[in-house]
Write a structure and sequence with these properties.
The structure holds two protein chains of two kinds. Chain A is an alpha+beta fold. Helices cover 43% and strands 17% of the residues of chain A. Chain B is an alpha+beta fold. In chain B, the strands form two sheets. A six-stranded mixed sheet of chain B has the order 1-2-6-3-5-4, with helices on both faces. Chain B has a five-stranded mixed sheet with strand order 7-11-8-10-9, with helices on both faces. Classes of the chains: A alpha+beta, B alpha+beta.
């Protein structure tokens, strides 16, 4: 029997005495809870001369605290089947995991201990630094990674927080010391910069209360961050080729600096990107490059609006002999959408898809947690899942045309190629 | 310890249509969604030399037009309901999936019925897809670990078709004809070789009626004659060396593994969790979620000692005996011989000393948690129901937790001794030809 289902989220938001925010959403699909503790401590805030500092901090963060050694943390988590993830993005560093409901109190205690009290033991710093260096060497050999990194450098410059390499360079990572990590932690890990999202089979009262107890005596002042600098001015096309011998396929990264997340044109850009390189198997780009020309397994675009002007990136992997033909096709699709905008049918289809996909986006605990973190980071409001369909519905053909005309100019594109 | 339900849902309904198609329906009323998966018991193990990659190519063609859905109308069919669609092909199975708003149910069933009965395989679409698939293959070759995996698998098997890569060998992809591919499609993508799974905010009786209406008229095909090839016992260690320009060295070790229905399978699953941390059993999600592994034998013995920067293990439920593989990335400055010696020392220590009750208990707890995590959406529940129906037959999936709970440390020690021997081992090295870093 189909039963009535409560639709939409109903999260609660509590600001603790120290300034940390706790957001809880109860769900009942499985006897499990997702915990996501996000701190404004991403790579954008590391000192420019030490690229990779935030990333390495994230790698060592959960390797021993004032209360638990690395071995004890490993044992307490492994015994419960919990894999802790520390994800370092441009603006945030998130400590996240899923656990069984019955383990919630203990696992939350470990997560917040890791956030508050890491010791960064010297031996752990050395080990994780060596792992980061191996990862960097793997990245240097990865055409997809190299193409995107090179594109971001072209768009923003090597010093800009969005242009420098998130994992740093071999030279910079070798220079980072334990005292750099402890100083970075002290500067960024403060209650007013923490948003803790808890989603799952736990009561709001229990989750909020446990979080308040764990964070009770934690203090620290807010931080005033400078604005993210603008991207490089782009009057003309820029292109850079990275040779990686021995590879079978060439990777293309093609793009523009786009908009901030809180830009009033955000929804128009969102829909425009869907039409260009998302809808179906990859929008107009995949229709042409993959479906009509059979040139690539993947061709798509991705919009990443952020605190500053994030990029719009077009990606494709092609046979090295087809690089120029693929670039000409991207130029054509970008130029056409930029000059003419989408059709009314395309706009209607994309809006219908994007609105219809919201329940799917909010089905799992991890999906809800990620949505609530974005909501909190950008101050979108606790009822944002209810308002999002209206925002999308209101987007007009003129607004999408204007967004496309604003950004989609092949003559101003940055182009990075990596491959044999 | 209180028992854990896989998901807060009702039992699964089973039915078999007159034409032999199996149907599984599982009601889940936590979100207004429905997930439809159409599974076929065909994969690369059903392919003969010269025709490798056919099943995967069929998967690609089924995103093209059918008699009643022109290609240009394919796009938008699922998206209209906010849905996602995808498919995958592996050694035992091919599947197509859609998850969308529950109102999409009829459209999704129609799409799958069309794919089963009315694929067009237009010659120009077939040719365009040839280069797309070759591009997919080349993209995979850019990853040294994936390349090594292909070579190790091909070396470990002499006779069994599990040795072919699912994507196919490049010369076969270049020579396959449209009629060969269409013949493969007509032979295997038939109702009596299919299982349809529907999970979500639906009424099971209503779904069964709709499925019968949509798929009932599709005629059954003659009973399939399948390849029946038994891999002969391996007589000694096999080795393969891949040398290419690169920056990092990779090591892979594989042993012949039990099929999912073999009594050794669950002790092996616990053994893998002891060695590298529990991944769970959901092929669709497990590779996206890291395993809890910091107390595992190979993590503490190799990563914590700075010999490897990462370690992973893979034991996947398969219809016939496949491989248990351990993959390692060498730390900069650590040679492949040194890493291999250290890894084998860990394996031999475990084989000689066995695993402790505590280790086995931790591994079982990890697997229990993973079973809960990997059933967190209608998409994942439908995947698990269809995967096990296709690979092991009915009745297996609901028993997973009990099978794991019953595994003892003695059984784990026993399979380690018998199954991780050097005779059954294939070792692969990826040696970078130069260091450009």
């Amino acid at each position: 029997m189909t039963t009535a289902v409560v639709r939409g989220l109903s999260p609660t938001r509590t600001v603790l005495a120290g300034g940390a925010v706790v957001i809880v959403q109860e769900t009942s699909m499985t006897p499990a809870v997702t915990i996501n503790a996000s701190v404004l401590a991403g790579g954008a805030y590391e000192p420019a001369p030490l690229p990779g500092l935030a990333f390495l901090t994230g790698r060592v963060l959960d390797r021993g605290t004032a209360h638990r050694s690395a071995a004890v943390i490993a044992e307490e988590l492994d015994d419960r089947g919990v894999a802790l993830r520390v994800t370092t993005a441009r603006h945030t560093m998130a400590v996240s995991c899923s656990c069984l409901s019955e383990d919630f109190d203990e696992v939350l205690s470990i997560v917040l201990d890791v956030v508050r009290n890491p010791l960064f033991p010297e031996a752990e710093v050395a080990k994780r630094r060596a792992e980061c260096l191996t990862t960097l060497r793997q990245d240097y050999d990865n055409p997809a990674m190299r193409a995107v990194e090179t594109l971001l450098e072209l768009l923003y410059g090597e010093i800009h927080p969005y242009g420098r390499r998130a994992k740093g360079t071999i030279e910079s990572v070798e220079r980072i010391t334990r005292s750099n990590l402890t100083a970075y932690h002290a500067a960024r890990f403060r209650p007013p910069l923490l948003s803790l999202v808890i989603v799952g089979d736990v009561t709001t009262a229990q989750a909020t209360e446990r979080a308040a107890i764990e964070l009770e005596d934690w203090t620290g002042d807010p931080v005033q961050d400078p604005a993210v600098p603008p991207p490089l001015q782009a009057a003309e096309r820029r292109k850079r080729v990275v040779a990686i011998p021995g590879k079978s396929q060439a990777d293309i990264a093609y793009g523009f600096a786009a908009i901030k997340r809180l830009d009033s044109r955000y929804y128009a850009y969102y829909v425009m990107n869907n039409i260009l390189g998302q809808f179906g198997l990859g929008g107009r780009l995949a229709d042409n490059i993959r479906e009509r020309q059979g040139m690539a397994y993947y061709a798509y675009s991705a919009l990443d609006p952020s605190v500053g002007q994030g990029p719009l990136i077009i990606r494709a992997g092609v046979d090295p002999d087809n690089v120029e033909r693929a670039l000409a096709t991207i130029d054509h699709e970008v130029g056409t959408l930029g000059a003419e905008g989408p059709t009314a049918d395309e706009l209607a289809q994309s809006k219908q898809y994007l609105i219809g996909s919201i329940p799917r986006m909010l089905e799992t605990n991890a999906g809800i947690a990620s949505f609530l973190q974005t909501e909190e980071q950008f101050g979108l409001g606790l009822d944002y899942d209810q308002r999002l369909p209206r925002h999308l519905h209101a987007v007009t053909l003129e607004e999408v045309r204007a967004a496309a005309a604003d950004v989609l100019h092949p003559e101003r594109a940055a182009v990075a190629l990596a491959g044999p | 310890m209180r028992p854990v339900q896989v998901a807060a849902t009702s039992p699964t309904r089973f039915d078999t249509l007159q034409n032999g198609m199996r149907v599984l329906v599982h009601e889940v009323h936590t979100a207004p969604l429905v997930s439809v998966w159409c599974w076929y018991r065909v994969g690369s193990r059903d392919e003969t030399p010269g025709r490798t990659g056919a099943s995967h190519w069929v998967e690609h063609m089924n995103f093209k037009g059918t008699r009643n859905i022109p290609r240009e109308q394919m796009k938008g069919l699922v998206e209209r309901f906010g849905g996602m669609w995808n498919g995958y092909t592996w050694i035992d199975q091919t599947t197509y999936l859609e998850t969308a708003g529950r109102d999409a149910l009829d459209q999704l069933l129609f799409l799958e019925a069309e794919r089963m009965a009315n694929g067009l395989y237009e010659p120009e679409e077939f040719e365009a897809e040839r280069t797309v698939i070759i591009s997919e293959l080349q993209g995979g070759e850019n990853d040294p670990d994936q390349l090594l995996d292909q070579e190790v698998t091909a070396t470990a098997f002499r006779a069994h078709p599990y040795r072919h890569p699912t994507i196919g060998w490049l010369p076969d992809l270049r020579s396959m004809t449209r009629d060969e591919l269409y013949g493969h499609y007509r032979r295997f993508y038939v109702p009596n070789n299919a299982t349809l799974v529907v999970a979500g905010d639906v009424d099971a009786d209503d779904v069964l009626r709709r499925v019968d209406r949509m798929f009932g008229p599709i005629a059954a095909a003659p009973e399939l004659t399948r390849l029946s090839i038994v891999e002969p016992p391996q007589l000694g260690e096999r080795r393969v060396l891949v040398e290419r320009p690169g920056a990092t060295a990779y090591l892979k070790m594989a042993w012949h593994a039990p099929a999912a229905a073999d009594p050794d399978f669950f002790p092996m699953l616990v053994l893998d969790a002891v060695l590298t941390g529990a991944k769970g059993m959901n092929l669709w999600t497990s590779f996206r979620n890291p395993a809890p592994q910091r107390k595992s034998r190979l993590y503490t013995g190799l990563v914590e000692r700075s010999l490897a920067s990462s370690v992973s293990g893979a034991l996947v439920p398969t219809a016939e005996p496949f491989l248990y593989a351990i993959s390692l990335t060498a730390m900069q400055g650590i040679s492949l011989p040194a890493l291999e010696a250290a890894a084998l020392e860990q394996i031999e220590t475990l084989r000689e000393g066995g695993v402790s009750d505590e280790e086995a208990a931790r591994a079982r707890r990890q697997l229990r948690a993973r079973f809960v995590f990997e059933n967190d959406s209608v998409t994942n529940i439908a995947h698990q129901l269809g995967y096990f129906d296709t690979v092991t037959g009915p009745g297996f999936f609901p028993e997973l937790q009990h099978m794991v709970d019953r595994v003892t440390s003695e059984q784990v020690s026993d399979v380690a001794r018998r199954r991780l021997s050097s005779v059954s081992r294939t070792v692969g090295w990826f040696r970078p030809l130069e260091n450009r870093a």
